[in-house]
Amino acid sequence: MTEPSYVVPPPPCVSVEVRDSTASFPVHRVYCVGRNYAAHAREMGHDDREPPFFFQKNPDDLVAPGTPVPYPPETADLHHEVELVVALAEGGSNIAVEDALSHVYGYAIGLDLTRRDVQAEAKKAARPWATAKAFAHSAPIGAIVPASTLGHPKSGRLTATVNGAPRQDGDLADMIWSVPEIIAHLSRWFVLAPGDLIFTGTPAGVGELKRGDVVVGAIEGLGELEVSIA
């Protein structure tokens, strides 16, 4: 069979480290759930029980552990949002809630970086959030821990510190929509695929990051993710 040719070099496959494995997790798409913790919804001025909604980041927005994140252009208000990330081994559409966890490969700690000022202007103008959420280096992520090792956490403390000072402190049990519910609902809108990642939302306490800051996100059972803002 003739090898395909391209008019420009094809992009490399984006992948995420898997803990205690020499193999890595190839990334297909990156989905994110908005306002999935009641306290965070309230601090952003919204009701604490709304149907889940989704936005996307790009696979090449992911940042491996230990890689400094450059402060993004066109913002003066960069915010941290530490989240549980779900990695899918199987896809599908219209997945039943009771079947959803069988589609999960594992879990990781993620950091949803947000140009908050840009997002606020987009909300006022009823415009998409892409420039606020889906910019380069906006999705640092730790190593994926397989569900075969970790299980499927329904609870567990989630925290964030900036330069050692506490910022976020919540629990996975506080999610408005559980992981199975997120997968089921998302699969009604998109045909999910192996390699998809889902950032599941963040608890209250989000705040500003400045150049030189070091943010450390931690989730019980998953360890820590340290990110420095260059």
UniProtKB/TrEMBL annotation:
Location of the Fumarylacetoacetase-like C-terminal domain:
30-229
Please, which domain of life does this record's source organism belong to?
Bacteria
Q: What class of enzyme is it?
A: hydrolase
Protein name per UniProt: Fumarylpyruvate hydrolase
What are its E.C. numbers? 3.7.1.20
Q: Which GO terms describe its molecular function?
A: fumarylpyruvate hydrolase activity
Q: Which Pfam families match?
A: FAA_hydrolase
Q: Which residues cross the membrane?
A: none
InterPro entries recorded for this chain?
A: Fumarylacetoacetase-like_C, Fumarylacetoacetase_C_sf
Keywords for this protein: Hydrolase, Metal-binding
